[in-house]
Amino acid sequence: MRIDYAVESDYPYIVENDKHLIETLIRQKINNHEIFILRDRNQEIGWMRYGYFWDHIPFMNMIWIDEEHRGQGFGEKVITYWEEIMKQKGFQRVMTSTLSSEEAQHFYRKLGYRDAGCLLLEKEPLEIIMTKHL
């Protein structure tokens, strides 16, 4: 498995699978190197994208691993890779969030993320905000 910054040729793959981000922002995130593509044998198998909370804390927004590649450690590898890059850039903390109804919260805790608060939107499950010191 290889992790690269997404490039323009990855755009169709991301657009096809990322239903949480409007298409016009995908190109912007590609150009800003805020999406990592996971490849296995030169085939896209997933991605991770991030932004910045309060414009200065790296915030992992989304991880996607194609169904047939889940459970093989790829998610952990891309998170660890991202955390190391953020540390090299001088950041001391990273963040993410997950719905309380999702199993991802346990995955993030296993990787050292700690609950830092929550967000409750009308008619939505509780969103757990998580942080990790690098």
Gyration radius, in Å: 15 Å
CATH topology, what is it called? Aminopeptidase
Unreliable segments (pLDDT under 50, ≥5 consecutive)?
Answer: none
Describe the strand arrangement of the main beta sheet, using strand numbers: 1-2-3-4-5-7-6
3D shape: globular
Named at the architecture level, the CATH assignment is 3-Layer(aba) Sandwich
User: Care to count the β-strands?
Assistant: 7
Mean pLDDT: 96
Give the C-level CATH assignment: Alpha Beta
Q: Count of helical segments?
A: 4
- Coarse structural class: alpha+beta
**Proportion of beta-strand residues:** 35-45%
The total tally of domains equals 1
N/C terminus separation: 24 Å
Let me know the CATH homologous superfamily: Gcn5-related N-acetyltransferase (GNAT)
How is the biggest beta sheet arranged? 7 strands, mixed
SSE succession = EHHEEEHEHEE
Percent helix: 25-40%
Structure description:
There is one protein chain. The chain has one domain: Aminopeptidase. Helices cover 28% and strands 37% of the residues. The chain is built from 4 helices and 7 strands, in the order E-H-H-E-E-E-H-E-H-E-E. The chain has helices spanning 11-17, 23-31, 74-88, 104-110, and strands at 2-5, 35-40, 43-53, 57-65, 93-99, 114-119, 127-133. The radius of gyration is 15 Å and the shape is globular. The model has no long low-confidence stretch (mean pLDDT 96).
